[in-house]
Amino acid sequence: MKKQILVIDDDMAMRCLLQNMLSEKYDVSCADNGLEACYRLSADNIPDLIISDMCMPEMDGLELLKALGASGLYKNIPVIILSTLEDNHTRERCLGHGAIAYLSKPFEAQELMQTVSRPLVSKMFL
Questions:
Q1: Is the pTM value of this prediction over 0.85?
Q2: Distance between CA 62 and CA 35 in Å, rounded?
Q3: What is the mean pLDDT of residues 8-13?
Q4: Domain map of the chain by residue range?
Q5: pLDDT band at residue 116, thresholds of 50, 70 and 90?
Q6: Is 118 exposed, middle or buried (0-12, 13-18, 19+ CB in 10 A)?
Q7: Which one, of 104, 107, 56, 98, lies nearest residue 78 by Cα?
Q8: Which phi and psi (to 5°) does residue 124 adopt?
Q9: Does pLDDT of 86 surpass 60?
């Protein structure tokens, strides 16, 4: 059974790119923003990993991290943040609120795939 990844990005082209990159190895679903992702999670669609954009309307990546961290059900879902923001303050805030990685856009496909595989492989041995 394939591990499930939820991709959250308001840019349809980026969602499609990520889905194409990941769908060979993983079961990928997508959401337009953090708020839509929270609705999906509340409908019992709990992924093994979340990959989220930082800058989105309605609920951005940092707000999503805070919401996940405040939840008993979702706080252990690993989250990778992808962002065009390259400042250390934003990176530190995301990592401080539970992101397992913060990758700058544009990112290298190989780096993303390695970052994605780490928490999914380690979860297999829990």
A1: yes
A2: 12
A3: 96
A4: 4-124
A5: very high
A6: middle
A7: 98
A8: -65, -25
A9: yes
Helix axes 88-96, 61-70, angle to 10 degrees: 20
How far is the C-alpha of 93 from the C-alpha of 82, rounded, in Å?
A: 13
Please state the length of the chain. 126
pLDDT tens string 46-55? 999 999 999 9
Q: Which CATH architecture has domain 4-124?
A: 3-Layer(aba) Sandwich (3.40)
Radius of gyration of the chain (CA): 13
Q: Which residue has the tokens 């303050």?
A: 89
The residues near 46 (Cβ < 8 Å, ≥ 6 apart) are: 4, 73, 74, 77
Given its phi and psi angles, is residue 58 left (phi above 0), alpha (psi -120 to 50 degrees) or beta? left
Residues near 123 by Cβ (< 8 Å), separated by ≥ 6? 3, 48, 78
Q: For residue 99, count CB atoms less than 10 angstroms from its CB and return exposed for 0-12, middle for 13-18, buried for 19 or more.
A: buried
Looking at the chain, the number of H-run helices and the number of E-run strands are 5, 5
Which residues are CB-contacts of 118 (< 8 A; sequence separation ≥ 6)? Answer: 100
